[in-house]
Amino acid sequence: MEELRTEPRTDLDDRTDISLPPDAALPLIDSDTDEVGVLPQRSFVRSARTFLRDYFLGEEPTVGAALVPFCFLSILLFTRHPLKTNFIFDEQEAILANPYVRSIAEANSKLHWLDAFRRDFWGLPSDRSIGSYRPIPDLIWRALWGLGARDQTPFLHHWVNVVLHALNGALLTVIVSKVTKDRALGWLSGLVFVGCAVLTEAVSGVVGIADVLGALGVLLAVAALALPMYWMVPAVFLATLFGLFSKESALCAVPLVPIAALFLSRYVHPVSPRAGLRTVLAGLATAVAFVLYVESRRRLFPAPLAPEISAAANAHKPFLQRTFAALLRWYAQPILPRDPLNNPLIEATPPYRIAAGLRIYADGLSQIVFPRTLSGDYSAPQEPIPPTLVFPASVAGALGMVAPVLAAPVMGIVAWRRARKWRTETGYLDSPHIAMVMGQKSGLLALLGVAMVWVVVSYFPVSNIPILLPTVRAERFWYFPALGTSIAVAAVFITVGRKLRRTRLAWATTAVLLVFLGFQAYAARMHANDYTDDLVFWDATRHAVPRSAKAHLNYSVMQGARGRLEERRSANAVALDLAPTWPMANVYLGDTLCRMHRADEAWPYYKRGFELSPNDQNLIALAIQCLWDEKKLQSESSLVRNELEDLATKHPGTWVAYLARDTIDNGEGHEGVDPQYRPRGYNQGPKEE
Description:
single chain, mainly alpha, 26 helices, elongated, disordered N terminus
């Protein structure tokens, strides 16, 4: 048998070498020995390693090449159960109750394809909108409904998210590799992003398609910066417009794309960067796309504006506040829901709202690195108003929001000076090798500057700091910022790994990276399992965020839909303990008792819910119908009927007054509440408009 032999390395630059140990370090087996089965096995191992090295590092990655492995990874981590899954949480309103989506299956539909631009995310007209305007997701859902993906399962709808998520990872890989000329860094950035566990809600949840498509638009706009200038401008414009019509959060492209052009042009166009001109043209393209989007929405979807941004309401305020209100009036954001249960910061003064927003931002950053807890809901009182302004989490959030913005221009200037010095000293500006070294020496620093700004700028609009959102916190808000954090995380591992590669700690970086990726994958897969069905989802949510009243109440509803009334009552009681002034928790607990044929016990909870919200038609109709079914309203001597009539007198002109009197007077003919006023049942389609 021959002695061990080693072959010389062929790496031109060990900074880009992340190869496995050389093949020749394996023993070469003499064919004359009895170990005839070993040589083919070693040859197979060498062939597999060579194939993987060539595939991932042999050539500059392309979108097609990166899409294949990332599709498999995305499918592995985020796919819901193909047979058991059903429509969960917002998916019921977004698809099952969406009149625009479902209308494609109607023989004489009044709604047509382009009506997506006249309807909101939930398929509602502007005068009934709750604020979200996202036509492109509705177009996709309508097409899927027309193809037969209907109310049996959301599996195909969800698979669109899974594949698009892989596409975004592939685009990120190509962008990073193009800028830094570092294939390993490009692949690792895409891998970290695709496997990022905090993105599970956006990828596994059907309504997350808005975030995935919006980010796709922004990534395409950044990728377009590598095109010749005459193609760059229209490509940036169209990509930005696509992102905006997918989700409002894509407005972050307006500042981010010009910043990326300024920082990165000299690395994607090393011969003739013309960074200033590209920055101006990219800025104009994104700005024109934004103006066109806003003006189109204002005309096609003329929703009423919030009173607090009117000119009269801001006439006596300081100049900056008047200007901000004027911008909001031009932007014409539809009125957003204001429910303290979904967002308790509605009741906070601005300083305390900012402190809470910074705390939530810091928590989100920690989830990016260590996603120990993931949840589909963070309703009150899970995320309360903080008692003080300054505390560790608010300070950490402030540092995490301010420091990147301050550091990014410094990094950009240092990278520019390094690149300029290198170009001056070398003399050959058109050499591919010069471009590669420039990218590795200073391109990474410039890209990190863009990534740091990316995180802050893309998260700030959804932070509840500039404006109040309907939701206090959601993990899908991190889909845009995670593009920036993925670059930063990958850069840390690559840089440290190369610094330590010839030391005794060389193994440590690889070990930490594998643990990091492994834990991300585990957390993503476990959270994706929470989307098996609606009962599993809310059961997991109430354990992940035990102080969310909505999580416990929705879990009780899922139990009730399966006929388990005692489990429904128990979970509903927990929700009421957490939110005693929540009308729905009171009425639903009463409804549970009523359905258990304990109507006398139910009435105090019904009554409390009516007093808290005398104009909630659905809740009141639900309660009165059950009271009618339990024969509590038919007799004039009934205590429940008499107290209900007293409530009607106490709240004239409200739904409780109207439905109480109408049901008592006409209940025999309607068999209770007039059917046109009854709420839509669980997991049902839309009521007729």
